[in-house]
Specification:
By secondary structure, the protein is mostly helical. Helices cover about 75% and strands about 0% of the residues. α2 runs antiparallel to α3. About 25% of the residues are buried.
Length: about 120
């Protein structure tokens, strides 16, 4: 029989594994949203993009995906700056945002067993 701490650790490990499996889809969604925002497709998309990136920044860090969390936070700050200036999608930081999206995708952890 497990102790409460062991049961909780097993729960956290499962949450982390599930999150890692979902990361590629989350990254693809963020990339697709940025592409749509950059093309000026929909005025609602920047808010959705910011929300997804904000959520990723917090959750990734909490679950131990620190590189993903840091990359998402950097992207979030660029998106916030552009939005506050009312410049999305034609932001002067457009290239920086595109690079930050690419860096976020590159931060995806390799498929490796979780401890």
């Amino acid at each position: 029989m497990d102790t409460p701490q062991q049961a909780f650790q097993r729960f956290l490990d499962q949450q982390r594994a599930d999150y890692q499996r979902a990361l590629p889809e989350k990254m693809a969604h963020i990339h697709a949203l940025w592409s749509a925002v950059a093309d000026g497709d929909d005025t609602a998309l920047p808010a959705e993009l910011e929300r997804l990136v904000h959520t990723l920044a917090g959750t990734a860090g909490t679950l131990g995906f620190h590189e993903v969390g840091a990359a998402a936070r950097a992207l979030e700050l660029l998106l916030e700056q552009a939005a506050m200036a009312g410049q999305l999608p034609l932001s002067p930081q457009r290239t920086d945002i595109a690079l930050a999206v690419a860096a976020l995708q590159a931060s995806l952890p390799a498929d490796e067993p979780l401890s």
